[in-house]
Amino acid sequence: MWMLAPILLLLAFRRRRPLLRGAVLGGTAYVAGKKGAEAAQREAEGERAAEQPPAAGSGGMSSESMEKLKQLAELHEQGILIDAEFEVQEQKILQGM
To answer: Quick one: which of 57, 69, 63, 60 has its CA closest to 97?
Structure first.
């Protein structure tokens, strides 16, 4: 019986190697598939972000700036401001946005 023990051990190790190899290959395939799925998801999110148009803003002018421009235009129409003064004041308001 003691002669069979080494043979049984040898058979046991032979059996484990294919199982170990399968476990390693399976684990590697799982990780590779998971990484590939994550990369595909990141790529899809990037495409969705590129497809979305930028949000429409209010033109960058506040209501206060618009009101100042209207008052400035009224003063120009009344002749209180000359063209050069109007343009200088207009640029100050527009650059103060």
So the answer is: 60
- Retrieve residue 67's tokens: 């009101």
Strands (E), the chain: none
> Do residues 67 and 32 touch, judged by C-beta distance below 8 A?
no
Q: What is the pLDDT of residues 50-76, one digit of tens each?
A: 666 655 445 667 888 889 989 999 999
Predicted structure pTM score: 0.38
C-alpha distances out from residue 77 to 71, 82, 83, 87, 91, Å: 10, 9, 10, 13, 17
User: Dmax over Cα atoms in the chain, in whole Å?
Assistant: 122
With b meaning 16 or more CB within 10 Å and e meaning fewer, what string describes 20-40? eeeeeeeeeeeeeeeeeeeee
Q: Identity (one letter) of the amino acid at 51?
A: E
Task: Tell me the per-residue pLDDT of 31-46, one tens digit each, with 9 for 90 and over.
Answer: 888 888 898 888 888 8
